Automatic annotation (TrEMBL):
Residues 14-220 form the CobQ/CobB/MinD/ParA nucleotide binding domain. One of its GO terms (biological process) is negative regulation of cell division. It comes from the Bacteria. This is AAA family ATPase. Signal peptide: none annotated. GO terms for molecular function: ATP binding; ATP hydrolysis activity. InterPro entries: CobQ/CobB/MinD/ParA_Nub-bd_dom, P-loop_NTPase, ParA/MinD_ATPase. GO terms for cellular component: cytoplasmic side of plasma membrane; cytosol.
Length: 278
């Protein structure tokens, strides 16, 4: 890709955030990346759940390079750093996207600098149409940076039991206090038809806002996709959950997003690197 072409790209950053664990951020983020790639976009999936990131586990990838390697490279090379050297390609049914893995070791996660993490995202924006970011469930310095620079934040929640809803309420109030635009923060309910005595209507009243989108529950299909290491939208295209994920992707991609126009579609390239980088 020429430097002139890189200057024309301003990739859309879509972060997945929650204030509770096990709500489905990683699964939905992976499937959003896969669906956008299926539609012809150049996509990178970034695992910024630094301590316990599961993106590579879900996709059964064994990355040679991680975010920690990217940080070392930035420290050594400065402005000549090329993030593409730290990416791992993923392919399923001839659909391809890139992955930036979380650090391999727990102790490495403590050494990642937020400024470096931001530089990585900004460089990825110049290479990809969409940068999908998986995060950890807390208001950390890293996550606050991501909230600031993201085009869209998918604030994912479930209504399975009271502590989860309490955390969702705290998170929603905090995001409002921090002054984030409601168009930027998209409250999405996952596993909506799971067996629970708590109604989504009551939760919306508590949060004082409606869910932007609702995703159905399909625990069996979701679990099988993790076992297989293949996104639902590619392997199980006809199920309700896959259809719902495509609907959410459609809302995100078929409009101007937070002032960033939808990236122009490009012709497919024959090679893997060509498909990923143009």
């Amino acid at each position: 890709m020429s430097s002139a072409e890189q200057e024309t790209i301003n990739g859309v950053v879509i972060s997945f955030f929650s204030t509770a664990s096990s709500v489905g951020k990683t699964l939905i983020g992976i499937n959003m990346a896969a669906e956008l790639a299926r539609q012809g976009a150049r996509v990178v999936l970034v695992d910024y759940d630094l301590q316990f990131g599961d993106v590579c586990n879900y996709l059964q990838l064994e990355p040679e390079q991680t975010l920690m390697d990217a940080q070392r490279s930035i420290q050594l090379t400065g402005s000549s750093f090329d993030v593409r050297e730290c990416l791992t390609p993923y392919s399923c049914r001839n659909i391809m996207f890139a992955v930036l893995a979380a650090p391999r070791k727990l102790e490495e996660s403590y050494n990642i600098k937020t400024s470096v993490a931001q530089k990585v995202i900004e460089q990825l924006q110049g290479l990809f149409d969409y940068v999908i970011v998986d995060t950890t469930s807390m208001f950390s310095e890293l996550n606050l940076m991501l909230l600031d620079i993201s085009t869209i934040v998918t604030y994912l929640g479930v209504v399975d039991f009271l502590p989860t809803i309490k955390n969702m309420k705290i998170g929603s109030d905090t995001l409002r206090t921090l002054g984030y635009d409601s168009e930027k923060i998209r409250l999405v309910l996952n596993r909506s038809n799971a067996k629970t005595r708590i109604s989504s209507e009551d939760v919306q009243k508590l949060l004082k806002q409606e869910f932007y989108y609702v995703l159905p529950n399909d625990f069996q299909a979701a679990s099988q996709s993790i076992i297989d290491g293949k996104p639902l939208v590619l392997e199980h295209q006809d199920i309700e959950l896959s259809d719902a994920i495509r609907g959410l992707v459609g809302l995100y991609s078929n409009r101007s997003l937070g002032g960033v126009e939808e990236p122009a579609r490009r012709e497919h390239k024959s090679s893997l690197l060509g498909r990923l980088f143009g």
